[in-house]
Amino acid sequence: ILKEYNRDSFIISTKVGRSSPVISEMFDFSYESIKRSTDESLKRLGLDCVDILFAHDVEFAPDPNLIVKETIPALNDIKNMRKTKYIGIAGYSLSYLRDVIMSSIIELDFVITYSRYVIFDESLNEYLPF
């Protein structure tokens, strides 16, 4: 259906990091898994490039160093291959996200967290204008 529209008329975002419906195998943030998952998404979408690519729920990695040393470099390589325009990470824990950002030498285009700046939870304030 996407082929019916001008590619510049919409923005496509997809996420990587969840690779299996089996709970014990659900999260895989390894370099190869990120690249494979991206290629699978592009194939399903029938596209050569997505606008935004996120590693989702990064706090479920067995070690934050995996995100810094494999996941983010894989995202960056995918961006350099022009399979995405923007890269980022998504998760819940603000301190975890901050620590990953501060540990990475690769600059991310986006960081997404959820439920952190609402009437009953303004904890995002302590990280702004980070």
TrEMBL record:
InterPro entries referenced in this protein's UniProt entry, alphabetically: AKR (IPR020471), NAD(P)_OxRdtase_dom_sf (IPR036812), NADP_OxRdtase_dom (IPR023210)
Highest taxon of source: Eukaryota
GO molecular function terms noted in the UniProt entry: oxidoreductase activity
Gene3D superfamilies (UniProt xref): NADP-dependent oxidoreductase domain
Residue ranges annotated for the NADP-dependent oxidoreductase domain, each copy included: 5-120
GO cellular component, one term: cytosol
Stored Pfam families: Aldo_ket_red
Protein's name in the database: L-galactose dehydrogenase (Trinotate prediction)
Biological source species: Henneguya salminicola
